[in-house]
Specification:
single chain; alpha/beta; TIM Barrel; Jelly Rolls; eight-stranded antiparallel β-sheet; 10 helices; 19% helix
């Protein structure tokens, strides 16, 4: 064992010495080679939009200090092309800088450009404008989808193709599509995706596919290495079982665990997920000791800021994800080491014989004293010019991606019967003459509400929230938001709608006042800080809505939990006064906020195999 470890150490030192000058990453003799030298990938996944840009470098140093030599990241199409042909690679979307900073810290990069990424991310990373055309079939050979995808991948190639290892960059491998075997088995589609990548310049690094062990036949391509995705929660022998499946399918290929699920994610109305550190460690140790390559999913989960949480659905149930993507990973949501970090660090050091760098210090989070949100603006006073339509239109029909949408009509009474929303995506509050009549929640499979309208004219308002587009299964192909089909009352169609788009991209310019506001309201306050450190906003005083800090959308609030605090990164604060805005569907005056020095992600659940 000592001789083996010495050889491993010598190999690692050789690779480290030539890493900056590396120009080739290949597969040879069932393993990976970096410039001809054996290279065991020990990677961790982090997602640049889920981490404030000011913290990227610190997170990379944390990765190095745990013993990682590679970083894996998805690319999120919806962040970069918010409108067709309009691209954004600035600020937190500057993925090329993210890759360069990883290289600066001595880390290689595995790139996962999709175009589909899953990742518990809104619509699996697809931009919502794809769904404006009701005939499009995403994630298929549909020419309309492929045309938009080709344009996007071509544009991404201009940003990242120069950073591949063959061009002197850190990108050693690029994934073709993403776990396609869990979705379909169209190998022609996969070949087209492969062709798009190489045509866009991604031909100076190693291309590969990744799937669950059982889905390999459906999602892989001949001639490309395959990675297998699985979790350490399935017992202490999950890795042996998964790699046995890989050997049955591709006996001579490299041994790559392309996603090692070391935690799990949370749904609204559920519990905060945790996994067995002992099982996680047993599987990781087995892989490392056998010289297998592995990428931890996640090394650092971070936060799905703003509206970017995804959702799960099997066509019947709908489960939107919370804002936090803590994932019970080695670094917590705010980038602080957890118990898993220390355990994994020791395992990596033992397997490689390499002493990692010292763990960087992270400033403790701070407490922000309680303050009252004393200014307010009613949602009803912010409405702009509506679009009139006989039938309800979805957000996508009206070029809206996120936020809320309001449907208004007038009904002559008396009428008694069920109001049916077909099909509601996702959460609606129904008002009659300005008074709340009821709530319908797709999460609870609710779509009808009994109404008793008196004689004369009644104004009917239906305020709908996009709670997060489904990011997994073929359900995502129909993930338009709002009222996506029709409305009936007492069995008769309701028509003649004025529709107000409420993307809530700007909230500071509203007409705030010190007057009392109840119901769907925006609340504003300023709070003072003498230093800019992380804190966790306690949101337990609010019911359901959204929070902004200094104009940045922080995340969602929902009293059903499990999440009770929102992570507020220090770099998003200013020394002095800071503006906070809360939108609450069921607002009450006099509500308060405060910053805590620890998160509250809710009561936990621990399972051998957490369900999604």
């Amino acid at each position: 064992m000592q001789t083996m470890r010495s050889k491993h150490l010598a190999s690692l030192l050789t690779v480290t010495a030539c890493l900056a000058a590396a120009t080739e990453f290949t597969v040879q003799d069932g393993g990976f080679r970096l410039n001809g030298h054996p290279f065991q990938i020990i990677s961790g996944e982090m997602h640049y939009p889920r981490i404030p840009r000011a913290y990227w470098r610190l997170r990379f140093r944390m990765a190095k200090a745990m013993g990682l030599n590679t970083i894996t990241t998805y690319v999120f199409w919806n962040e970069h092309e918010p409108q067709p042909g309009v691209y954004d690679f600035s600020d937190n979307n500057d993925i090329a800088e993210f890759v360069r900073e990883a290289q600066h810290e001595g880390l290689s990069v595995i790139l996962r450009p999709g175009p589909y990424v899953c990742a518990e991310w809104e619509f699996g990373g697809f931009p919502s404008w794809l769904l404006k055309d009701h005939s499009i079939v995403v994630r298929s050979r549909d020419p309309k989808f492929m045309e938009a995808t080709a344009r996007w991948i071509g544009r991404l190639g201009k940003e990242l193709a120069p950073l591949q290892i063959g061009n002197g960059g850190p990108i050693i491998a690029v994934q073709v599509e993403n776990e396609y075997g869990s979705f379909g088995d169209d190998h022609t589609y996969m070949q087209q995706m492969h062709h798009l990548l190489t045509e866009s310049g991604f031909n100076r690094s190693l291309l590969y596919t990744a799937d669950g062990p059982e889905e390999l036949p459906k999602g892989s391509l001949p001639g490309l290495p395959v990675g297998i995705n699985f979790g350490g929660s399935d017992g202490p022998h999950a890795a042996q079982e998964a790699f046995a499946e890989l050997r049955k399918f591709r006996a001579g290929g490299p041994s790559l665990n392309s996603e090692y699920w070391d935690g799990w994610f949370d749904h609204w109305g559920g519990l905060h997920a945790t996994t067995s550190t002992a099982n996680q460690a047993a599987n990781l140790s087995w892989m490392l000791q056998h010289g297998y390559s592995v990428s931890l999913y996640m090394f650092h989960g971070g936060t799905s800021f703003g509206w970017m949480n995804g959702a799960n659905s099997n066509g019947r149930n709908y489960e939107p994800d919370v804002t936090s993507y803590d994932y019970d990973s080695p670094l917590d949501e705010s980038g602080r080491p957890t118990a898993k970090y220390s355990v994994f660090r020791d395992l990596i050091q033992k397997a490689t014989g390499v002493q990692p760098a010292p763990v960087p210090e992270v400033s403790p989070a701070m407490i922000v004293p309680q303050f009252t949100l004393s200014e307010s603006a009613s949602l009803w006073s912010t409405l702009s010019t509506p679009v009139h339509s006989e039938q309800p239109l979805s957000m996508e029909d009206l070029d809206q991606s996120y936020g809320y949408i309001l449907y208004r009509t007038h009904i002559g009474g008396p009428v008694s019967g069920d109001l049916v929303l077909d099909a509601l995506h996702d959460y609606a509050q129904i008002y009659v003459n300005g008074k709340l009549a009821g709530v319908l929640d797709r999460r609870l499979s609710q779509n009808h509400l009994r109404l008793e309208l008196s004689g004369g004219d009644s104004r009917l308002d239906i305020l709908v929230e996009n709670s997060g587009r489904v990011n997994f299964t073929a359900v995502l192909r129909g993930e338009r938001k709002g009222i996506t089909k029709q409305v009936t009352l007492a069995g008769k169609p309701v028509t003649g709608w004025d529709i107000y788009t409420l993307p809530m991209t700007t909230t500071s310019s509203l007409a705030y006042a010190g007057e009392r506001c109840e119901g769907p309201c925006f609340y504003r306050a300023t709070f003072h800080v003498d230093e800019t450190r992380d804190t966790f906003l306690d949101t337990t005083g609010f019911s359901k809505g959204q929070v902004w800090i200094n104009g940045k959308p922080l995340g969602r609030v929902w009293s059903i939990g499990p999440q009770k605090t929102l992570y507020l990164p220090g770099p998003w604060l200013k020394v002095g006064n800071n503006e906070v805005i809360v939108f609450d569907l069921n607002g009450q005056p006099g509500r308060t906020l405060q910053g805590r020095d620890k998160p509250d992600l809710g009561p936990t659940r621990s399972a051998a195999r957490p369900s999604d």
